[in-house]
């Protein structure tokens, strides 16, 4: 799944760079969405999120988020999420997200 996002000033710090917490939320949200796009009925809770912050995205800059499923097991799934500057392709952050995939009740 590939999507784009323009960094609003409200998600930046005093230096006009995208706040790390906002970037982590983006990894969480898009990482969860890729499971839905792949047909998963629910995504449950995050078990682990790891993010390497490599460069800064700035206010009003367009970024591209590329999320891919690494694997899905019986109860868990793992995705990789790469955030790049849309104009140059330079990597801003790289994340890995492992989620518990809700299992349907047999009741």
UniProtKB/TrEMBL annotation:
- What is an example of a Pfam family matching this protein? 4HBT
Q: What reaction gets catalysed by this protein?
A: a fatty acyl-CoA + H2O = a fatty acid + CoA + H(+)
Q: Which residues fall in a coiled-coil region?
A: none
Question: Domain of life here?
Answer: Eukaryota
Entry-linked InterPro entries: ACOT13, HotDog_dom_sf, PAAI_dom, Thioestr_dom
Q: Which UniProt keywords apply?
A: Acetylation, Cytoplasm, Cytoskeleton, Hydrolase, Lipid metabolism, Mitochondrion, Nucleus
- Thioesterase domain residues are 18-90
Q: Which GO terms describe its molecular function?
A: fatty acyl-CoA hydrolase activity
GO (cellular component) term, any one: cytosol
The Gene Ontology biological process terms listed for this entry are: lipid metabolic process
Keyword Acetylation among record annotations: yes
Where, subcellularly, is it found? Cytoplasm, Cytoskeleton, Spindle; Cytoplasm, Cytosol; Mitochondrion; Nucleus
Family, according to the entry, reads as follows: Belongs to the thioesterase PaaI family.
State the function annotated in the UniProt record.
Catalyzes the hydrolysis of acyl-CoAs into free fatty acids and coenzyme A (CoASH), regulating their respective intracellular levels. Has acyl-CoA thioesterase activity towards medium (C12) and long-chain (C18) fatty acyl-CoA substrates. Can also hydrolyze 3-hydroxyphenylacetyl-CoA and 3,4-dihydroxyphenylacetyl-CoA (in vitro). May play a role in controlling adaptive thermogenesis.
Q: How does it assemble?
A: Homotetramer. Interacts with PCTP.
Q: What is this protein called?
A: Acyl-coenzyme A thioesterase 13
**What is the organism field in this record?**
Panicum hallii var. hallii
